[in-house]
Design a protein that fits this description.
121 residues; elongated
Length: 121
Amino acid sequence: MAMLESPAVAGELLITDDVIAELAGYAALECYGVVGMARPSMSDSFTKMLPAHRLRRGVVVHSDSDGVIIDMYVIIEDGVNLAAVSRNLADTVRYVLEYYAQLDVLDVCIHVQDIHLKPRR
């Protein structure tokens, strides 16, 4: 059976920064060790975990003609290797954006805003 190539579609596909942030936020919650997204601003003396329907607020997207840079503000589970979780998160978000949205991802910057402590017994 021969594989037929589909013809190129004329025009442009524009993806808003909100959609990019939403994709990145959902990818983050699939990563081991990430328990939630946090607000990008640390002006408060505490970090508030954002509910799942507000995932994009923990993601800042910088886009230009060369590609996108993603800043992610996350809360990590206590007891995990921060470097390994951050590296896995950055790789996962990069993959999701490159595969599903066909974006050129220049960088994914992970900002660990807080550690989620497990309740002590």
